[in-house]
Amino acid sequence: MPAKSGEISYPILLKKNLGLSFISGTAILVAARFFDFATIALFIPPVLMIFWGELSPWLRIGAILFSLTVFLTGLLAIKYIRHSDKVSWFQMSAEPLPSNPSIWKRGRGLIGQLLNELHSIDNEHQYWRLWLLTIGIWLCVQTNFYLIILSLGYQMTFFQSLWYPIIMVPMTLLPLQGFANLGTHEIGWIAAFTLFNSPTDVALSIAVNSHILLLAFVLLIGFLGWLLLQEFPSRHVDVEPIKERE
C-alpha cells in the first residue's frame, strides 16, 4: 500500500484477529520497526569494514552516524520509558477522557496510552530474543533478494547485496513510497549497484526486474494461502481475543 498506509494494516489486523486495541497494536508496530532499524544498524559495521576502501568518506560517516543514532535512540527511549516520573505527565492523561475533549487533551491521552503499552513491552525483558528473531528474518529476506539477483544472471556477492537494505530501510521513514514499496526498492538497488561502479541502466534493469519477481512471489504465496483456507476451512482455528493488561 502506498505512502506508509500499509503499516496501518498491522494494528488493524491485530485488533481484528487477536482482539488487541489499536494502541496496543501500534506499540507492537513501533517496537518491531525499531528492531528492524537496529538490525540494519548491526549489519553496517562489518559491511563497512569489508568495503572501507571502496566507499567515499561521506558515505562512511553517514553509515556510522546512522548506526550510532539508532542505538543511542533505542537506549534513550528505554531509559525514558522506565522512568515513570518522566512519563507521568502523559500517563495521567491515559485515563478515560471526558466527553468532547480538546485535540490537545486527546493527543496527550493517546501518547499516554502508547507509553503505557511500550512500558508493558519493556517489562517483558525479551529484547535479545526479539532481536535474534529479527536478525534471522532479515537474513532470510536478504538471501531472497540475493538469489533473485543471481537468477537474473547478474554477479554480486552477498555482502555487496547487503547495501540494498542499508540504503532502503532508512528511506522507509519517508512517506513517499508508492504501491508495494515502489520507488524505495528501485532507489535502494540503483544506489547499491552504483557504489560498485555498475552502469545506471544495468542497475535500473535489476531494480525493476527484481521488484517484479518479488511482487509476483508475494502474490503467489498469498494466493496459495487463500487456496488452502478455501480447501481446508475446518483447519482454520479462531483465535481467542487476547486480554488487555490491566
In angstroms, what is the radius of gyration?
A: 21 Å
Specify the overall morphology. Answer: globular
Number of strands: 0
What string, H for helix and E for strand, traces the elements in order?
Answer: HHHHHHHHHH
Note the gap between the termini.
Answer: 34 Å
Number of domains: 1
Poorly predicted spans: none
Q: Helicity range of the residues? A: over 70%
- What fraction of the residues are assigned to beta strands by DSSP? under 5%
Largest sheet: none
Quickly list its features.
0% strand; single chain; mainly alpha; 10 helices; 246 residues
Structure at a glance:
By secondary structure, the chain is mainly α. It has helices at residues 9-18, 22-50, 57-82, 84-91, 103-123, 127-151, 158-161, 163-171, 184-194, 200-231.
